[in-house]
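Structure record:
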Amino acid sequence: MPLYTLDLVGIKAAHNFRDRTFIVATSYIIMGQTVGNMKKAFGVERPDGSNKRAFPSGHTASAFVGAHILYKEYKDVSPWIGVAGYAVATGTGVMRVLNKRHWLSDVVAGAGVGMLSAEAGYLLLPVFHKLFRIKDNSNNLILVPSIGMDNYGIGLAYSF
């Protein structure tokens, strides 16, 4: 996910690793539950007739969660990072329609659910901080070589 790999090339996000991970996890949980409940409640048939779980598009919702978080984290660095995320997410929705898996309304709703889920993840971040009494933004990453009789590797420990 670009949200984490951009750190490796020195592009700093708005939030630290711990907070971004909370935002991502919370956003995707909210999106998944919302999409699943809406699909059951509305029962819209797919264009190809394969089932009645078209509305809203879960693939599009998932893509827009990622795109919106990417935008929010890097909008002050470069608007083009967000544009790239939204372009990929839009492409996901377009392909779902072209492949006759969704109606246009399904992907538009999926995009909305995705972006709103990401916003909810950001709104819940202060609650997370208060609940776990998090006051600083320090993170510690430790890489340790691991050498065994027949194997080699690297151990990773991350504290937050």
In short: Strands lie at 140-147, 152-159. The chain has one domain: 2-159. Residues 105 and 129 are 37 Å apart (CA to CA).
